[in-house]
């Protein structure tokens, strides 16, 4: 696996992502600066980490989505390369048009930093093949703008094509209004592109990969990617 | 030449900030305000004098960056 983790001014989760990638694949990823115009040769996974790129000015992810490196990311995605955006990375992918919809202010207007439960909706994806469909995992969120919004037609297409990979739920796997922490439409926590190769998600699987932290529910996501790239 | 761009949320898009402001106005005892929607205003200074070119440049600015047309509308006024 040859992974590239993008670094924008204000990114702050790039080391967590790099740690999770190295732990699960054994290979250290490259950290790539936003002003670069090319990804390292042979890159097969691009990760956009969490943080507060450009201080969330204008709209979360709006300015990072227009960074020089994003043209290279777009070409990578068009070639069918894997792209993972977590938290601010998800916001950037939406602003860049690589994923549909937009992440709005949490409906309760509060920044939420705590563990949440997610239901893995499908295991038929390079990002979730090591999970069982319907599995409930516990991972942290830390965001103020995670309220997923898309027009009705887009939403219908996402649901109809099985492109919602993660949904907020309670500990039993039931999607309830109370478990939908930020008010996202259909309790959406993570979606993939129409070719299934670009995943954006608000929660942070990279923070639950090491037993030292107490939980490892996010680990299978990185193992899935490593396995998918190995067998590709 | 100067211009003002106003960016507003499309109808039907939930605006929790506007709702919070609406609630705060009610609790301040300001009567007669039915609802509040929050938006953004950008004041631009343009370098040239050509009106049509200015409008085209501002439109490009709005479509490329100032507004997210998935959930926002924009209005351009040349001042």
In short:
The complex is a heterodimer of chains A (232) and B (79). With 232 residues, chain A is α/β, with parallel strands linked by helices.
Protein traits:
A: 232 residues; alpha/beta; two-stranded antiparallel sheet; 5 helices; globular; B: alpha+beta; Mth169, Chain: A; three-stranded antiparallel sheet; 2 helices; 3 strands; 35% helix
**Helical content class of chain B:** 25-40%
SSE pattern of chain A, N- to C-terminal: EHEEHEHEEEEHEEEH
- Tell the overall outline of chain B: elongated
The total strand number of chain A stands at 11
The CATH superfamily name of chain A is Class I glutamine amidotransferase (GATase) domain
Name of the CATH class of chain B: Alpha Beta
What is the N-to-C succession of helices and strands of chain B? EHEHE
Number of self-contained structural domains of chain A: 1
Largest sheet of chain A: 9 strands, mixed
How many beta-strand segments of chain B?
3
Average pLDDT score of chain A: 97
What is the CA-based Rg of chain A, rounded? 16 Å
Radius of gyration of chain B: 16 Å
Question: What is the helical fraction of chain A, as a range of percent?
Answer: 10-25%
Number of domains of chain B: 1
What's the CATH topology name of chain A? Rossmann fold
Measured by residues with Cβ under 8 Å of the partner chain's Cβ, the largest interface is:
A-B, 21 and 11 residues
Strand content of chain A: 15-25%
